[in-house]
Amino acid sequence: MNIYYNFQLLLKKIKTYYYVNTEKKDKSENVYDEDRFLSLLYDKVIKNLIVVDKKVFFSTKINNNNKPNNLAQARVLLSLILLDNNNQNFYHRFYIDGLINYLLGEKTKDNLFNFNQKSWNKQDEGIATIWVLLALLESYSVNNSEKLFDEIIIITTAMHNKLYNQEKSLTHNLGDDYWCLNAVSTYAMFIARFLEKKYDKSFVSNLNYSIELCINNINEEGFFPYSEVRKGTYLLLYNPIVILTLEEALKSKYIKPSLKDEAIIKLDLVKKFIYAKQDNNGFFVEPEQVKFSRYIISNITSLIALKGFILPIEEKNILKNVRSYMVKNKLYLCKKESNEYFMGSLFEVNDVLITEVFFWYLYYKNLK
Predict the structure, then answer these.
(1) Cα separation of 368 and 366, whole Å?
(2) How many of the other CB atoms lie within 10 Å of CB of 279?
């Protein structure tokens, strides 16, 4: 196993080194309008959908024993629901039903979901399971299938038995004993939405505790650390996700009023931290990432977190910046200060990250 692992790792490093050092960088001259941008993203997502019998899945290069990435499946399912928006599009409904069938067939023996990255890595069962649950719950809101809701209850029960820690809330991986705030906040959003469908007293307690855990761990610099053991990462990606998921959770009638008031004040402090990380052209610059400092997904999630906090003209400029990453029909993930767009070592997960860009852009468009 170690020989195979080391050989695969060496091949990956060689491939990445070659790509990074030979990649041709592009400059954005004409920014696509929104319709064209979304149309190109849509085409890139749809062409990767594979139909097998009554199942549909999004094919990804990153996989675990040939099983595609499950976070991408959840992202595509949520995107199709946002895109359909009760228009009853036949093809969208076909894909939605097929993705539901696929995901329900991908449960582990513990009724959880693996992230499905390389088999020698941890599988991020917490993140994969909570986002699949959110996608399934949104699907239930569309089709009202009681059979589907029964499955959601089974998976939710398994998640609490295997991944929920009374002190750390939802953990990122099976066996973790430390908090990871984007997992905790996303769990809070899911539980808030679940409680709208089915009341559970213990979930109310978990919901309030998870929100408290997040807002009590904002550090002295004014942002959410990634986890209890890892303080830095893509801060402008994960901090906005914590904000937007907490804001969704705070809509629940089961939140303690004093906690809601405190959370709103503290979230505004984090928004100020994010807002200050823009360059002179309005691109958000990751403070702890040198190579990928101007990362497209960080720019979209930051925009979502700041909606209503900034001026409409600022929102419009940030949206244009996001669309500038599409150059000659190719979606780039990173940008240099010199206005050159590139993939770098992220080229290996380009397909997964396209689903991220598509989902978060649609999420922003659907915000009230």
Answers:
(1) 6
(2) 12
The full 3-state SS of 165-234, as one line of letters, equals ECCCEECCCCCCCCCEHHHHHHHHHHHHHHHHHCCCHHHHHHHHHHHHHHHCCCCCCCCCCCECCCCCCC
Q: What is the CATH number of the domain that holds 268?
A: 1.20.1050
Count the domains in the chain: 3
* Domain span holding position 200: 173-276
**Other CB atoms within 10 A of residue 355 CB:** 25
CA neighbor of 297 nearest in space, from 340, 289, 254:
289
Q: What is the DSSP secondary structure assignment for residue 311, as one 8-state letter?
A: -
pTM attached to this predicted model = 0.93
Q: Any idea which residue has 């997964």 for tokens?
A: 352
Look-up: residue for tokens 């599409």? 326
Q: What is the pLDDT of residues 299-345, one digit of tens each?
A: 999 999 999 999 999 999 999 999 999 999 999 999 998 889 998 88
Q: What length is written for the chain?
A: 368
| Long-range contact set of residues 28-31: C-beta below 8 Å, sequence gap at least 24 | 28/324, 28/325, 28/327, 28/339, 28/341, 31/320, 31/323, 31/324
Residues 92 and 137 occupy one common structural domain: yes
Could you report the per-residue pLDDT of 51-76, keeping only the tens digit for each? 999 999 999 988 888 899 999 999 99
Cα torsion angle, 99, 102, 105, 109, sign:
negative
Under a CB-based contact definition with an 8 Å cutoff, are residues 54 and 98 in contact? yes
What is the rounded distance in angstroms from the CA atom of residue 221 to the CA atom of residue 317?
Answer: 27
Contact in structure between 168 and 225 (CB atoms under 8 Å): no
